[in-house]
Design brief:
Layout: H1 2-26, H2 34-37, E1 48-53, E2 56-58, E3 60-66, E4 73-82, E5 85-94, E6 105-106, E7 113-120, E8 127-131, E9 136-147, E10 152-161, E11 169-179
């Protein structure tokens, strides 16, 4: 009789553990802020990029472009989605030796750096907004790490785009950690 009672108690304890464990798996995962959705600001050649577009996380899904450094132009960009809209983003830096590290490039002055962005519906490819180089009201790109031997370039950026036909677009907390080709 004592054995049956202990077996029932043990079964009850095990059942309780399984139920509690099952509840833990179904608990909601912590909600990430838009900033936490972005890739970390690293400098290891992880081939990542992202920014907040009007407060919403943008991470390239279709591709990340990174052009050759030795052709006097660095080109960074990609395509991604924000709230169901496709956003194409690109930056170019005209390199006048030496490459500036830890000294910002002004994206609003087209003499050394520029940026552009387009937004479409992603299905019909109907363009909603095109922000060309001259639409950059203000902005900066900062190269924080450059390793020629390992082919790594990393940095941060931000910009405000303004055109007559579109709402203001604010790119904040931008970061990239990319491998480049020569």
């Amino acid at each position: 009789m004592q054995f049956r009672l202990k077996a029932r108690q043990l079964a009850l304890v095990l059942l309780t553990v399984f139920i509690v464990q099952g509840c833990r798996e179904n608990e909601p995962k912590p909600h990430l802020s838009e900033l936490e959705k972005l890739p970390a600001a690293t400098h290891e050649g992880k081939h990542t990029m992202g920014f907040l577009l009007n407060g919403r996380a943008w991470i390239p899904r279709s591709s990340i472009r990174f052009g050759a450094v030795t052709q006097s132009i660095v080109s960074i960009g990609g395509g991604g989605e924000v709230d169901g809209l496709q956003v194409g983003f690109g930056m170019n830096i005209n390199i006048y030796p030496p490459l500036r590290i830890s000294k910002p490039y002004n994206l609003a002055q087209n003499d050394t750096a520029s940026s552009s962005m387009s937004i479409d519906d992603g299905v019909k490819r109907t363009l909603f907004c095109v922000f060309e180089e001259d639409a950059v009201l203000e902005g900066e790109l900062l190269i924080t790490h450059y390793d020629y031997q390992k082919r790594i370039m990393a940095g941060t950026f931000w910009a405000t785009f303004l055109t007559e036909s579109c709402d203001t677009a604010r790119v904040t907390d931008g970061r990239f950690d990319l491998l480049f080709t020569y």
